[in-house]
Amino acid sequence: MVNDIKIEIDYGPLAVLIGVWEGDRGEDVAPEPEGEENNPYYETIVFEAIGDVTNAESQTLVALHYRQIVKRKSDDKVFHDETGYWMWDAESDTVMHSLTIPRAVALLAGGKARKEGEATVFEVSAKLGDSDWAIIQSPFMQNKAKTTAFAHTISVTANELIYAETTMLDIYGRSFEHTDKNVLKRQA
Ligand code: HEM
């Protein structure tokens, strides 16, 4: 069960993510039937500490819930809406990132966090068919716009969050590298 006493919990490397982040230097490269589209964007990501969870009475995870709302600069409309959890298993020192997007695609990525000077760097990935860190998607997406791999790096210092993610797609008869990156500042 999720613990109600959230404040006393040690969120390990995830602690640096907690808060509200905004950034307007987003660069999206997305597939088009004949090539690609490039979308400058701005966004808000909110990470909320939600407590800890015990699995099979032997594993304890600490977890953050997040919501990411991304708007195109060209028309100020939301064009990406993502939610999920970041989880950390202290015993195995594993970071897990689950995400869902309303294209009927979800995944569970796994990896590690490490210190690089002042920064905490998270690196997680998932692959279609992987027995540990996998991707699930609707029959339509499997046929028409299949996500085959996902890799995500976040680097966080006290007030800055930089991320880069690559989503590999099989779409329009080819393999496409769908990429997104941004620099966000912590909001007071
Ligand atoms: C900031 C993050 C992201 C932004 C701004 C973004 C934006 C976009 C855009 C503009 C398209 C093209 C849509 C169209 O042509 O109608 C697209 C396609 C797609 N994206 Fe993303 N995306 C992001 C992250 C992701 C992630 C994390 C995944 C999955 C792990 C994902 C999966 C897909 C898929 C499967 C498509 C193909 C659908 C299509 O083009 O018709 N995207 N995305």
Strands ordered across the widest β-sheet: 1-2-3-4-5-6-7-9-10-11
Q: What is the CA-based Rg, rounded?
A: 17 Å
Mean pLDDT equals 96
The fraction of residues in strands falls at over 45%
Parts with pLDDT < 50 across at least 5 consecutive residues? none
Shape: globular
Return the structural class.
mainly beta
How many distinct beta strands?
11
From N to C, what is the helix and strand string? EEEEEEEEHEEE
Q: Please tally the helical runs, counting DSSP H or I stretches of 4 or more residues.
A: 1
Helix share of residues? under 10%
**First CA to last CA: what distance?**
31 Å
The biggest beta sheet is recorded as: 10 strands, antiparallel, barrel
Can I get a quick summary?
The chain is mainly β. The protein contains 1 helix and 11 strands.
Task: Describe the overall structure.
The chain has 188 residues and is mainly β. The protein is built from 1 helix and 11 strands, in the order E-E-E-E-E-E-E-E-H-E-E-E. Strands 1-2-3-4-5-6-7-9-10-11 form a 10-stranded antiparallel barrel. Strand 1 and strand 2 form a beta hairpin. The longest helix is centred in the C-terminal third of the chain and has 6 residues. It is globular and about 50 Å long. The two termini are 31 Å apart. The structure holds protoporphyrin IX containing FE (HEM).
